[in-house]
From TrEMBL:
Bias (Low complexity) ranges: 77-91
Subcellular location: Cytoplasm
UniProt keyword annotations, A-Z: Cytoplasm
Source organism (scientific name): Saccharopolyspora gloriosae
GO cellular component labels: cytoplasm
Gene3D superfamilies: Winged helix-like DNA-binding domain superfamily/Winged helix DNA-binding domain
GO biological process, one term: regulation of DNA repair
The protein's name in its UniProt record: Regulatory protein RecX
Biological role stated in the UniProt entry: Modulates RecA activity.
Location of region: Disordered: 1-119
Length: 279
């Protein structure tokens, strides 16, 4: 072999060696194959299959980006795999705090109408959330909702047994609140309770908490408050308006006239005393 041939062979050998080194430095950027190695170096991926050798770097580690692709593939497989039959669905995994009417509505299959008993309970709960009511009031409300009488009576009896509907407590609270805030007489209070279907003996027990002296004192308070805003100067007109105001609140005529007369006399005396003290 001539010197020129030796020189050309040496140049090709150096070029091949440099190319192999450049390819080996780009770990993970391309597919590393078992045939791409520098002369005299151990073969990367030796003892592996062709597919494993192609996804293995020169140092035996996976190329860059391979882990992400594997994670994406695993996620796709898990999303496509069917749910085990023993796994509860989302509708069954409810928080333990959801009870009562809300849970019953959730458990009822769509398209299935609510039972009459459940509808009646919903109506009663809504009405009691606004204010206390007598049993007769609640029954009338259920019948207006076209609830069967037997169903309405059965549902209301459960509320009575649970202490949520009590006509005695309702009547007592009604008398106390209306007499204090509205100034109603015992006669007017009894009329309201009877309209609400409260039994007579319960009405009498509730009205017994308001005695005659307390009723008369409440009438005096009403007259005094009305006098402060009354602008009529004629004594007869003032008398008629004040007596009529008490009569509309259910006070007996005799008591109303007596209370108004006393309060007008007291008001005139106070006005005369003020005039006498004026310079």
């Amino acid at each position: 072999m001539s010197a020129d041939d030796d020189s050309a062979e040496f140049s090709r050998s150096r070029s091949d060696s440099a190319g192999a080194q450049r390819g080996g430095g780009r770990s993970g950027r391309g597919v590393w194959r078992s045939t791409d190695h520098a002369p005299g170096s151990p073969v990367a991926g030796a003892g592996l299959s062709s597919s494993e050798a192609e996804t293995t770097g020169p140092d035996g580690s996976p190329p860059r980006g391979t882990g992400k692709r594997r994670r994406r593939s695993a996620m796709a497989e898990s999303s496509e795999s069917p749910e085990p039959s023993g796994t509860p669905d989302s509708s069954a995994a409810r928080s333990p705090g959801r009870t009562g009417r809300r849970r019953q509505q959730e458990e009822r299959p769509p398209g299935v109408p609510q039972s009459p008993e459940a509808s009646a309970r919903d109506v009663v709960y809504r009405l009691l959330a606004v204010r206390a009511r007598s049993r007769a009031e609640l029954r009338q409300a259920l019948l207006r909702k076209e609830i069967d009488e037997d169903v309405a009576d059965a549902v209301l009896q459960k509320f009575v047994d649970a202490g949520l509907v009590d006509d005695a407590e309702f009547a007592e609270a009604w008398v106390s609140e209306r007499q204090r805030n509205q100034g109603l007489s015992r006669k007017a209070l009894g009329y309201e309770l009877r309209r609400k279907g409260v039994e007579e003996h319960l009405v009498a027990e509730a009205l017994s908490t308001v005695d005659t002296d307390a009723e008369q004192e409440r009438a005096r308070e009403l007259v005094r408050r009305k006098l402060r805003s009354l602008t009529v100067d004629d004594p007869e007109k003032r008398l008629r308006r004040l007596v009529g105001m008490l009569a509309r609140k259910g006070y007996p005529e005799g008591m109303a006239f007596r209370v108004v007369k006393d309060e007008l006399d007291r008001s005139d005396l106070e006005a005369g005393a003020d005039d006498a003290e004026a310079p």
